[in-house]
Recover the amino acids of this structure.
């Protein structure tokens, strides 16, 4: 059971906008930054969003992040087939003094 | 270009020990915290341990306390994870990752390709 809660799956058709949620608590997302990773099959995770809504250089602006209270969200607009991957949220947890991850969301592009 | 190359994975018997290494290049190693994250087959990501740039601050997941030790050699640009009393549940791909900064609440931005640890008799 992950500390952060994500839906196990999401889907959309090419060109659509999809949103993936990440629910936490006051000790993690509520008081610290949220981060998002994309993991393509058989590869290492790649940082997509840092500090709630910042994109590293090279990440398309189709990817955006937001945070409200104890929840964070990742939005992907203009969905493309290459976006099919697993997506993970993470945040530092002050109570655990460590990083906590969501269980991951498998995104399928129909 | 940031590069992280893990090594040391393999097959080990339950109760055994293993030391993972991560050779880093392309950045000032001592200026960044470093993290180990693992992923069991078909499962999600699990944080293992983080060490500050100087090595003076260390954080561990409960699953690692008492069994795993993170360390670094800044003169060799290398991160380590010493694992002992290994259990079947420790079977996973272990990723070495560079953190965004040297601050504790700064998540990894670059990841190695991972090294597989299999605990089995």
């Amino acid at each position: 059971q992950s500390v952060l809660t994500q839906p196990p799956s999401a889907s959309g058709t090419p060109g659509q906008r999809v949103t993936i949620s990440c629910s936490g608590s006051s000790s993690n997302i509520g008081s610290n930054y949220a981060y998002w990773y994309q993991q393509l099959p058989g590869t290492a995770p790649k940082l997509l969003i840092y500090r709630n809504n910042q994109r590293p250089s090279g990440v398309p602006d189709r990817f955006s992040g937001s945070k409200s209270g104890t929840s964070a969200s990742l939005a992907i607009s203009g969905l493309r087939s290459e976006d099919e991957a697993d997506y993970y949220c993470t945040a530092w947890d002050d109570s655990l003094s460590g990083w906590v991850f969501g269980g991951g969301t498998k995104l399928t592009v129909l | 270009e940031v590069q992280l190359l893990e090594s040391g994975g393999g097959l080990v018997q339950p109760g055994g020990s293993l030391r993972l290494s991560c050779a880093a290049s392309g950045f000032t190693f001592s200026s960044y915290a470093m993290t180990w994250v693992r992923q069991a087959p078909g499962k999600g990501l699990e944080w293992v341990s983080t060490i500050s740039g100087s090595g003076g601050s260390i954080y561990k997941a409960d699953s690692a306390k008492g069994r795993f030790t993170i360390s670094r050699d800044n003169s060799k640009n290398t991160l380590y994870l010493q694992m002992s009393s290994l259990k079947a549940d420790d079977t996973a791909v272990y990723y070495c990752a560079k953190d965004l900064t040297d601050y504790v609440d700064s998540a990894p931005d670059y990841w190695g390709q991972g090294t597989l640890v299999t605990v089995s008799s």
User: Anything to note?
Assistant: Residues 2 and 27 of chain B are 6 Å apart (CA to CA).
